[in-house]
Design a protein that fits this description.
Blueprint (H helix, E strand, L loop, with lengths): L1 H8 L10 H4 L5 E5 L2 E4 L13 E5 L4 H16 L4 H12 L4 H12 L2 H5 L15 E5 L5 E3 L2 E2 L11 H15 L7 E4 L2 H12 L6 E2 L13 H25 L1
Parallel strand pairs: 3-4, 3-7, 7-8
Antiparallel strand pairs: 1-2, 2-5, 5-6
Helix pairs in contact: 3-4
């Protein structure tokens, strides 16, 4: 969808921090359904079709959206190619800050880095970035009554608009990735829909089921994680074994 929104991106200021009224704006509104609004953001345009690890959130939030636009605008001013701009924008905007630190800690605990032959899981966000693809079940930012959509109100299945993205667009994206890749869903909503898609035979990758959301707002994440840790570790080890045999 970049071609459609590029003229509006080019009008954004590059001399100051972008504000909500710059981006939560009719120019970037993709679709609307009752109190739900989906806006364009450029970071999920880039798809790493060689990825071994695929981390899946529910939808980009405002912070990701802002970071994506600011990165894109800065790189566009530097006259980089569009492909390179999209790649770097994805890298800069995906799961940054405390959430990334929590995620790395949890993945280290279940030995993902060992399965990948890396000294630590942090490498997939750094020098080993080519093996990582990050995405969202609903790939563009969703807001409910002006606030970040969390997957609860309304539930994705109860919204024709959100269902279109989650059950069709997301499945198409996952099927463009290697069948040997490992899916890591963040949170119960993403986990449940991936499970549905797998049961229907619409996607086939191994998925780390019941992996807790790493957000600092999830106060129960470590309790949930410790409960599932042994099972998740076994799943990673099984994926490693199957991967080595392919």
């Amino acid at each position: 969808m970049l071609d459609q929104y590029l003229p509006y991106i080019e009008q954004l200021p590059d001399s100051r921090e972008l504000r909500r009224d710059d981006l939560i704006h009719p120019d970037f509104l993709i679709e609307k359904e009752n109190n739900l609004e989906i806006y364009y953001a450029p970071h999920n345009e880039y798809i790493n079709d060689q990825a071994e690890i695929v981390i899946v959130g529910i939808t980009p939030g405002w912070t990701q959206m802002k970071k994506a636009f600011e990165t894109f605008v800065a790189l566009k001013a530097a006259n980089l190619s569009v492909g390179r701009i999209l790649e770097v924008t994805k890298k800069e905007a995906s799961f940054s800050g405390t959430m990334r630190l929590n995620l790395i800690h949890m993945l280290d605990e279940i030995k993902l880095h060992d399965a990948l032959g890396l000294p630590g899981t942090a490498c997939i966000f750094e020098n080993s970035r080519p093996i990582l693809h990050t995405t969202s079940m609903i790939k563009y930012p969703v807001f409910y009554k002006g606030k970040n959509y969390t997957g609860h109100q309304p539930k994705i299945k109860n919204s024709p608009l959100l269902s279109k993205y989650a059950y069709d667009g997301f499945a198409d994206e996952i099927n463009s990735l290697p069948p040997s890749s490992l899916l890591i869903p963040l949170g119960k909503t993403v986990d449940a829909i991936i499970d549905e898609l797998k049961q229907e035979g619409r996607i086939n990758q191994v998925c780390l089921k019941d992996f807790p959301h790493p957000s600092g707002a999830n106060g129960h994440r470590m309790k949930e994680f410790n409960k599932q840790k042994n099972t998740l570790t076994e799943m990673v080890d099984s994926w490693k074994q199957n991967r080595s045999e392919m």
